[in-house]
Amino acid sequence: MTRSLGGAELATSIRNDASVAAAALAEIGVRPKLAVVQATDDESTAWYVRSIASAAKRTGILCDIVDLGAVASTEQIRSTLVELGHDPDVHGIILQTPLPDGTDLDALREAINPAKDVDGANPVSLGRLVARLPAFAPATAQAVIALLDHHGISPHGRTAAVVGRSTVVGSPVAHLLVQRNATVTVCHRHTTDLAAGTRDADILVVAVGIPGLITADHVADGAVVIDVGTTATADGQLLGDVDVAAVDGRAGALTPVPGGVGPVTTALLLNHTVDAAATQYAQTRSDSLLAGARSSA
Ligand code: NAD
């Protein structure tokens, strides 16, 4: 029997902590605010963004959805990100993908102010994460580690395989697992024998976006399988990358889709926003104290 590693309880607990911290900030006049920039008419993306906004509201965080429309240019999106980066009332910024065809995503990620980069998208954030310096980790990657911790599964000394190497999920998950002392294999679209890369892993993290990619052949007996994949179907279902029926009984534990990594990711985004608001408030206070000390010196 495969154990289900649900994310709802952990997500609630992270959101509760964020809510308490947001209330404390509100008492000193700081209202944490998240801006989500989107440029698509894809309905499943719009649904996801609305779900972040409603979770933010319930947590005491303001959330602006900045919808630039499905034909926005790289320059329009870039200048919006720069403007939000300078807006003292905005503490966190998320750039939602997909973006219009031909958009220069790398240039846009660099335009997110690192202090407000609550989804760890700017290469500065990723570099700091790899260098083990304080930074916001991409929320999904952090959610994978948080779920393992929550369910009492330690990566220390274990073998892990990560399928997918994107800069927002696969690569940062692999780094975080190495930082937790796992021995990690990374597989991707050019891996010639995927099962050979995954079938001995104690912990298997899959972040691809191909429903049913992972079958019993890819999974070691008793392995912990974290399914990050989310593919929306025409009839409104959300499918993970793991063939659940095929791995049932072979995997020791598996995250459900939906209800596994997703809710924890959203909760961490809110938590990062509150942290960013607190840090920016402290920075502003120290800047104004310094300016006051200089002017009276
Ligand atoms: P991406 O398209 O940027 O990256 C996909 C990765 O999969 C690439 O590294 C590619 O090399 C690899 N890949 C493609 N085909 C493969 C194959 N046949 N075998 C092995 N590897 C293969 O996607 P992403 O942004 O990293 O997202 C991955 C999945 O995670 C998507 O389904 C996305 O919707 C989902 N996602 C979920 C959350 C969440 O909160 N649950 C958050 C972000 C992304």
Describe the overall structure:
The structure is a single chain. This protein is α/β, with parallel strands linked by helices and 297 residues long. The chain is 44% helix and 14% strand. It has 2 domains: 25-113, Rossmann fold (3-Layer(aba) Sandwich); 139-261, Rossmann fold, CATH 3.40.50. It has a 6-stranded parallel sheet. Strand 2, helix 2 (43-59) and strand 3 (62-67) form a beta-alpha-beta unit. The protein starts with a strand and ends with a helix. Bound molecules: nicotinamide-adenine-dinucleotide. Nicotinamide-adenine-dinucleotide binds at residues 140, 163-166, 168-170, 187-189, 191, 194, 207-210, 228-231, 261-262, 265. Pathway: One-carbon metabolism; tetrahydrofolate interconversion. Belongs to the tetrahydrofolate dehydrogenase/cyclohydrolase family. Catalyzes the oxidation of 5,10-methylenetetrahydrofolate to 5,10-methenyltetrahydrofolate and then the hydrolysis of 5,10-methenyltetrahydrofolate to 10-formyltetrahydrofolate. NADP(+) binds at residues 164-166, 230.
